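ugh ok so i messed up the first submission bc i forgot one of the chains. this is the corrected input, ALL of the components this time, i swear. 682 residues overall. if the numbers dont match what u have on ur side tell me asap before i send this to the collaborators (the ones from the other lab, u know who)
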Amino acid sequence: MVTASALGDRLDAYRDLTADAVVRYVPVREPRRHLYDPLRAYTMRGGKGLRPALCLAACEAFGGEVEDALPSAAAVELLHTAFLIHDDIEDGSETRRGRSTMHVAYGVPLALNAGDALATLCFRPLLDNVNLLGSRMSRLVTAEFHRAMESTVEGQAIELGWRAEDVFDLTPVDYLDMVLRKTCAYSTILPLRAGALLGSWGQADLEPLTQFGYALGAAFQIQDDVLDLVSEDGRYGKDVLGDVREGKRTLILLHLVHAASAADREFVVALLRSGSRPDGAVRRVAEMMRDYGSIDFATAYAATIARSAAESFDEAFAGCPPSSAVEFLREIIPFMIHRSA
Amino acid sequence: MVTASALGDRLDAYRDLTADAVVRYVPVREPRRHLYDPLRAYTMRGGKGLRPALCLAACEAFGGEVEDALPSAAAVELLHTAFLIHDDIEDGSETRRGRSTMHVAYGVPLALNAGDALATLCFRPLLDNVNLLGSRMSRLVTAEFHRAMESTVEGQAIELGWRAEDVFDLTPVDYLDMVLRKTCAYSTILPLRAGALLGSWGQADLEPLTQFGYALGAAFQIQDDVLDLVSEDGRYGKDVLGDVREGKRTLILLHLVHAASAADREFVVALLRSGSRPDGAVRRVAEMMRDYGSIDFATAYAATIARSAAESFDEAFAGCPPSSAVEFLREIIPFMIHRSA
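and heres the new structure output, hopefully the right one now
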């Protein structure tokens, strides 16, 4: 068993490897001031690096070298950053990774364009895969990226549609379907499948990895939604209570809407329907989420999904010999639901 | 020589072929209401179809079948539409192809996401190229798309940067460099090169096509800027005097800033620096553009560039046997600067 600090060390090592690769794919040329300089600064803020770590570890677990997956891991991180920039515009978020979001710093037009640039640049490492791995492997990996990108915009459309049309009558199944498309497809399923493809030279059975990635990603997202509510100011790097303020349909909100008294439910729904969400009202909804047990519900739900992830894990990596990469991926499961940032 | 109506007929035929292909690449599945239905309706508005026509004609000119280039032509049109949706958000434009822009109809979040979806979907036909043309040709064509996309976001960053920082001291060379990256790279150079690659099975010398595409695209863009000022309401399909209202650095504006009296220049610059541009002031700037000869200057400039395009044309297609496709491409040059919509 990997200790918490061994997991953290390995995550850091993967993150540093990826960070070096990512920065090489942001061009050093004009236009600097309104495109590449802000992009480089933004990508260097760095996140936890979970997504590229999944790709690198899956490659190693299936017998590959970390170098084989490095361009793909960099592409995952670049794509993730592109999504973050556009997401923050769509959600009106102000803080990301502890600093101003791109559109707050540079305005919507330049930020939107910078996100487009990153979504384009993420294909550079995938083009490099042709020389590194040949055209067949390169094409298989690139196809995974395209599939994940299509899924992500579908998930985003579903979530934005709920908000645009004031939809509240949603079940955990609706929520999980949205999260599968919006979060899991590119955050966990894509890096795991791409890594396994690369490590096994196209021989791995990818379907169990999809199942594992789905459970892992859902557990990650639910914990993310919990952290939005319970994190101390600044720790989390995003807007405090941002999900409530943005009217996001989290599992926690869905529980509250079902569990609350008629009067409280009316208060919550009225606030979400309203364009303006003052701090006091947002805090009151957050308190209700605690008092009605909605946060506890989500935490318990994440734990159940994490158990399901552990079962999928055993199937997905059944054919892999023991290795520190396999252990890392196993320990990522509890990390997803116990992390505090 | 092709008559004007023969050119129009051929353009229509290419456009209809492309339209059928484009619509096949917009999925018929959920989420419909907030993604694929609006996208299908938007792509079916259709434009002139110049970009895909260049791709199909170049393929035929170099000896290929139109079917070989159809997926790539569809990809060009899908990419163009993706750029339009994001451009209109960045520019705050309200009218496109005679109707509301996507973000006016659906709000910025859903429109931004729909643009992302199209930029992703445009790779589907390029993936289909593998089966149609083999992996080498497919990879060459896809690389052209990536190059053009990188160039486009760079051009867009330059133009948005000028507006964000109130830059007026620009020369025609600055303007042409921006147009090369923002407009020509994906609108003319990409479809011509991709078509020639496909038609010649990778044998065509692409450099003269880049030169031809540059001149053709620059003539197109300058005429576009002129039409923004002289078109009758509704004819043009975009916001009337939209460029002035959005503060775009067109060749016409650059001429005016240099040619105007101190007082008039001050008026123009103050208006462009201001966030609010009332109709009366916008119309006054448009009148100055006429009175100071700025529109005539741009028209003459476009004619000069069209002559340069004609020279590049002779070199680019020197090795091609006579065909109606070659004649179509030759006649596109005068069409670019004489079109009224």
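quick check: Residues 47 and 97 of chain A are 7 Å apart (CA to CA). that seems consistent at least. The longest strand of chain A covers residues 95-96.
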